[in-house]
Write a structure and sequence with these properties.
This protein is about 30% helix and about 20% strand. The chain is built from six helices and seven strands. It has one domain: Quinone Oxidoreductase, Chain A, domain 1, CATH 3.90.180. Strands 6-3-4-5-7 form a five-stranded antiparallel β-sheet. The chain has a two-stranded antiparallel sheet with strand order 1-2. It is an alpha+beta fold. The chain starts with a helix and ends with a helix. The chain binds zinc ion (2 copies). One zinc ion (ZN) binds next to α4.
């Protein structure tokens, strides 16, 4: 409702969520995604051995969905693929209502990102509605509107506890990289409780998805470089 959307409370709530997202997702995004600027030095890979959390779908999964699939350098296809399904009790499946294409996707399509295998569904940002949750997911339930962070965070490993989810030992930038991503009708989100954000009633989805994918990226790239230069001199 327009009245709610314009209320001070709604604006405060929305800006708090965006702030927390910027602090987390952007830090992670800038650190994890390869730089879209070809003149910039590439950032170190944070997940040298990713893909450890890709178990098979749980029993009962089925059906098809549309998704944008990477088929090797220069090749992609909007295809019918098995519908995203729960694989562990901490997963959620989200019906995607908004997604993005970012510079990282263009790098992947050129064949520059070695961790992305042929057959991978692209996309690492998005907004959607929770379709299904694993047995231990407690913060979200079917029907919730959520913002999907490009960074998957277990919330429990040392790096997550230090506030650096982009270095999460079981997550980091894995969506559209080492597990299937958001450029699809449905996406599986591991560690849903710590990798999704609730969207307040009345928030503008277009505004939120743009804020997540673009506004934050540039801001925190500077932070990422500062972080790594400190690490090198430490
Ligand atoms: Zn991106
Ligand atoms: Zn973690």
């Amino acid at each position: 409702m327009r009245t709610h959307e314009g209320s001070t409370e709604a604006k405060t709530e929305r800006s708090e969520i965006l702030d927390s997202l910027k602090a987390r997702a952007v830090e992670g995004h800038a650190l994890s995604c390869p730089s879209p600027n070809p003149r910039a030095a590439p950032l170190p890979s944070l997940n040298p051995e990713p893909g450890t959390r890709n178990p098979p779908p749980m029993a009962g999964a089925g059906g098809l969905m549309k998704a944008l699939v990477y088929l090797g350098p220069g090749k992609k296809k909007l295809d019918d693929v098995p519908k995203a399904a729960l694989r562990t009790s901490t997963d959620a499946v989200v019906r995607v209502t908004r997604t993005t294409i970012c510079g990282t996707d263009l790098h992947i399509l050129k064949g520059d990102v070695a961790t992305v295998a042929k057959g991978r569904i692209l996309g690492h940002e998005g907004i959607g509605i929770v379709e299904e949750t694993g047995a231990v997911v407690s913060r979200f339930r079917k029907g919730d509107r959520v913002l999907i962070s490009c960074i998957t965070a277990c919330g429990k490993c040392e790096n997550c506890r230090r506030g650096m989810p982009s270095h999460c030992e079981e997550g980091g930038w894995i969506l559209g990289n080492t597990i299937d991503g958001t450029q699809a009708e449905f996406v599986r989100i591991p560690f849903a409780d710590t990798s999704l954000y609730p969207i307040p009633d009345g928030a503008d989805e277009d505004e939120m998805v743009v804020d997540e994918s673009h506004l934050t990226e540039g801001q925190l790239l500077a932070k990422a470089r500062e972080f790594y230069s400190k690490e090198q001199t430490a």
